[in-house]
Amino acid sequence: MASASVLSAWPPTLTDAQIHALTVQATTYALSNGLLYLPPAERQPPIPESAIHAPLALFPSPFPRSIFEHAKRIQRTYNVLYSRIAQHEQFLDRVMGTENGVGKVDDFIGQLWTGWKQLRDEGLVQPLHLGLFRSDYLLHAPSGESPSLKQVEFNTISSSFGALSERTAAMHRYLNASTQYYNASSHLKTDSFPENDTVAGLVEGLATAHKAYNNEKAYILFVVQPGERNIFDQRPLEYKLLEKYSIHVIRQTFDELALSATLDPETRVLRISCATDLHTDGSVEISTVYFRAGYAPVEYQTPAHYHTRFLLERSRAIKCPSIALQLAGGKKVQEVLTRSGVLEGFLSDETKWGKAAFRKEEVDELRESFMGMWGLDVGQDMITPDHDALESGEENFGVRKARELAPSLVLKPQREGGGNNVYKESIPAFLDTLPPKDRQAWIAMELIVPPSGASNYLIRAGGDNQRAVKAEVVSELGIFGWALFGDESTDMIEKEVGWLVRTKGKESNEGGVATGFSVLDSVLLVDG
Ligand code: ADP
Ligand code: MG
Fold first, then answer.
1. 150 tagged catalytic
2. Fewer Cβ close by (within 10 Å): the C or N end of the chain?
């Protein structure tokens, strides 16, 4: 197919002087337009005074136009799917709970689930949930087949890079407009650079939740990590909320919230004290809690951190995400969805969903985006845990199969944020040390085989590396969407709102811009 030949010829050939000139233009554009990171913590004064450009790809990456459109289209179905999972308490109890689910062996998931269960028993007052989602994909082209779209994971909490990806797309469009990349490739045409308005889209989601809460004077709370370096991805959402919707944002860490957050015992209205804010009488009411934190166990160092999380959950504010929606984004849920009939139960069961049931073709489209997965604790049927083996310590079928197929697998625990997975040849030694009871917390996933041949110039700030390094690369596409749902009297609202490309050196197993493994990129649509 045409895109395969584009890839092997990518990037087009330019002279060193041209690459240098483009690199200067790219980094200068990044610095001019907020495509930035704060410098590493040891170089940060308490009041920010400098920034470095984000890691970047010099060229946009070729991507088949039809697959890109397809990925955007199926996001609508994914939005609905995850909203239904988050509302299916029995399903989440079974898969993530502490009785027989992952929460039994994974302390972090267990704590979140237990807190959520208690709050449910006591009665939650806010039926609405807001999800700002990102579904991540790689192209799959084993043994030179034409590529298809395969999902890496679905993010339901702290889906990042909306703002920076929009700016990266704009940077590539600018480089093309300004230099036409020295006419190096006929693929670099204006209409091959798709629009990316992710910030406006994500902000519309937050503003819609705010409106549903129905108090114009309320603020949106951004829950953030201490020492966050990725603020230039977060602040633009804040600026747009104020500019377009006159909605104010307050940013706080869990530690700050432990001192500042209170609930009205009657109404469960969440208020945050903020003595510095002149517009208020010492505290503000919160309409929506947007978590850009709270997804990793290290963020919950003490019981007080869980206490704060549960206090926010108990409140009347709309949570993005609710604990239910966070749990729905677990890798274990992703695995369970691949089992026969599970996806269909969420989407196509007409007795359950009536007119809101999806057509078979729409459901099949999602299924086709799945790779094979199984739980490490399972027996021969690949579904039921092999309790005998887990107790005796013998190897159950799921583990034996993972050993056998190790070169084509990745193992994943219930974690987010990068750096947690075990790949290929590291799998056998890892399985040797994994306590049998912990097998339940892990899934095995077949590796996606991206098309080979594409290279790019990767630009990182700092030290001697302030230059473009050519490397063979793999690009991961993310599609953003949002959904507001949960109130039985009103229909859910959902949208697909934009995209992201992260590109990594081929030899690296992981992606992850924040963790230093990859760079921000954008798509160049190619036909065929
Ligand atoms: P996290 O929640 O830590 O981001 P991911 O599931 O996204 O975990 O995995 C991290 C990275 O590992 C991905 O960005 C991708 O580069 C790589 N990866 C994950 N699953 C697969 C897979 N099935 N095939 C190929 N690469 C994968
Ligand atoms: Mg990921």
1. no
2. C
Q: Tell me the two tokens of residue 45.
A: 């004064």
Amino acid 151 reads Q
> Residues with beta carbon inside 6 Å of ligand 1?
136, 138, 152-153, 371, 410, 412, 416-418, 420-421, 445, 447-448, 476, 509-511
Active site residue 496: no
Which residues make up each annotated binding site for ATP?
153, 331, 412-421, 423, 445-448, 476, 504, 510
The candidate with the shortest Cα–Cα distance to 455, out of 504, 502, 499, is 504
Contacts of residues 492-495 at CB distance under 8 Å and 24 or more positions apart, as own/partner, are: 492/80, 492/83, 493/208, 494/76, 494/79, 494/80, 494/83, 495/76, 495/79, 495/201, 495/204, 495/205
**Quick check: is 502 catalytic?**
yes
Q: Which CATH class is domain 372-447?
A: alpha beta
| Adjacent-strand bridge partners of 289 | 221, 319
Read off the pTM: 0.97
Residue 274 CB burial class (10 angstroms; 0-12, 13-18, ≥19):
middle
State in Å: Cα 418 to ligand 2 middle. Answer: 6
SS3 at position 262: strand
Q: Where exactly are the structural domains of the chain? A: 2-371+471-526, 372-447
pLDDT (tens, 9 = 90+) of the chain, 528 residues, equals 456 678 888 999 999 999 999 999 999 999 999 999 999 888 788 899 999 999 999 999 999 999 999 999 999 999 999 999 999 999 999 999 999 999 999 999 999 999 999 999 999 999 999 999 999 999 999 988 899 999 999 999 999 999 999 999 999 999 999 999 999 999 999 999 999 999 999 999 999 999 999 999 999 999 999 999 999 999 999 999 999 999 999 999 999 999 999 999 999 999 999 876 656 678 999 999 999 999 999 999 999 999 999 999 999 999 999 999 999 999 999 999 999 999 999 999 999 999 999 999 999 999 999 999 999 999 999 999 999 999 998 999 999 999 999 999 999 999 998 889 999 999 999 999 999 999 999 999 999 999 988 999 999 987 665 578 899 999 999 999 999 999 988 889 999 999 999 999 988 877 667 655 799 999 999 997
Whole-number Cα distances in Å, 201 to 80, 151, 168, 354, 375: 17, 22, 16, 29, 35
